[in-house]
Design a protein that fits this description.
The chain is an alpha/beta fold. The chain has helices spanning 2-13, 26-36, 45-51, 63-76, 90-98, 113-119, 132-137, 157-165, 183-194, and strands at 80-84, 103-107, 125-128, 147-151, 173-177, 201-203, 207-211, 220-222. The longest helix is centred in the first third of the chain and has 14 residues, at 63-76.
Length: 226
């Protein structure tokens, strides 16, 4: 009940931040309108919807947010997704369906058998409890392909960011799960927005999206996506 009231309050505060109102950058307006708010019923949504009940008891996003991950991958077309904190695994499945040719590495504290079964249909998904820091450091310094980083359901979000920020390139993207989970994480999310090493950021409350292209004017876009 308390969370519902809080989300209602946040929705009211963000009422004027919907549908790209007040955004003058053509690139940012396109991203908000045709990626964040896109409402087309993509072919994979229905079968993925039926899979959700299998792992509903594990940490995860609302279906609306997972669909956005699908559209984000469809838009960015990264070659690699590197996720820290697997949770229910549904977000990974949505991303995998959006681009079957990319490789996904997702890291968890321990391997969950239900999540493992969820991933079994997709050979592109590599599910591990290995050290994610080494995985980030092993990314090639010079690469033409983009990487989508996802700091997901993990208490080690600060450590993950410290490694990622030293590895990102201009065409990479970082998504942060639940940046308003508590006071410390909210403060950390504000630090990322102000970090001179980051570019345009999009604050959707459930997730934060960070780009690194310094050719675009640095700004934090608040979007009503609740």
């Amino acid at each position: 009940m308390k969370k519902t009231l809080l989300r209602g309050w946040v929705w009211c505060r963000r009422f004027r931040k919907r549908c790209g109102y007040g955004v003058h950058s053509p690139a940012d307006f396109f991203f908000i309108t045709f990626v964040i708010y896109e409402k087309l019923p993509f072919y994979s949504y229905l079968p993925l919807h039926h899979l959700r009940r299998l792992v509903a008891h594990l940490p995860g996003h609302r279906e609306k947010v997972d669909k956005l991950f699908f559209r984000l991958v469809n838009f960015l077309q990264p070659n690699i997704v590197l996720e820290i904190g697997t949770g229910s695994g549904m977000t990974v499945r949505y991303m995998a369906e959006a681009n079957p040719k990319m490789t996904i590495y997702t890291y968890s504290d321990s391997i969950n058998q239900q999540v493992e079964r969820l991933f079994s249909a997709r050979k592109q998904i590599h599910y591990s409890n290995d050290d994610f820091i080494n995985a980030i450091r092993l990314l090639p310094n010079e690469r033409n392909s983009s990487v989508l980083f996802h700091i997901a359901h993990t208490p080690l979000y600060n450590e993950a960011y410290d490694e990622i920020i030293n590895s990102v390139r201009a065409n990479d993207c970082l998504v942060i799960t639940k940046p308003y989970a508590d006071k410390n994480k909210k403060k950390w999310w504000k630090m990322i927005q102000d970090d001179p090493r980051t570019g345009v950021t999009f604050d959707l409350y459930d997730i934060g999206i960070v780009f690194f292209d310094k050719k675009r004017i640095k700004e934090n876009r608040i979007v009503n996506f609740l």
